[in-house]
Amino acid sequence: MKPRRDQRGVVAIEMAFIVLFIVLMLPPVLFFGQMYWRYNVLQQAASNAARYLAAAPPVEMTDVTGYTAALATARTIANGAGTAVGLPLNISSLILSCDSCSDNTAPPTLLGVKLKVKVVDDVFYDISSAWLVSPAVYISGDLQVPYAN
């Protein structure tokens, strides 16, 4: 009968390798999860802004001052959508594309809303700055809706 080799401590070494692997994989998973959550919030903000603009009266969508006021209100609504879930978006540029906005003609038939936000990773700033050239990432929400009025 062969003498049995001492197996004490093998489980601890295996556990150390497994824990090391899990610890190394956790930051990328959390980083991309956080970016995906922020993208969903931004997409919801674009949806809220587009819904407001789709229901705006035709007078606002064909008059230059009404159009500017409607865009300002839509921007406020989009910022509020982010703030409501604890993520202030600070949307300064809301790009509206439509077939006939602000040119004193007929109301538009299709509205497109695009939001773009610069996101700086606060949680994993050091890790993300090592992976990326800049820890700031740009995410955008884009939506097209038919004009309802």
Question: In words, what does this structure look like?
Answer:
With 149 residues, the protein is an alpha+beta fold. The chain has one domain (11-146). Helices cover 52% and strands 18% of the residues. The protein contains four helices and three strands, in the order αααββαβ. It has helices at 10-54, 58-62, 64-84, 125-131, and strands spanning 94-98, 110-120, 136-146. A three-stranded antiparallel beta sheet has the order 1-2-3, with helices on one face. The longest helix has 45 residues, at 10-54. It is rod-shaped, with a radius of gyration of 25 Å. The N and C termini lie far apart (90 Å). The model has no long low-confidence stretch (mean pLDDT 79).
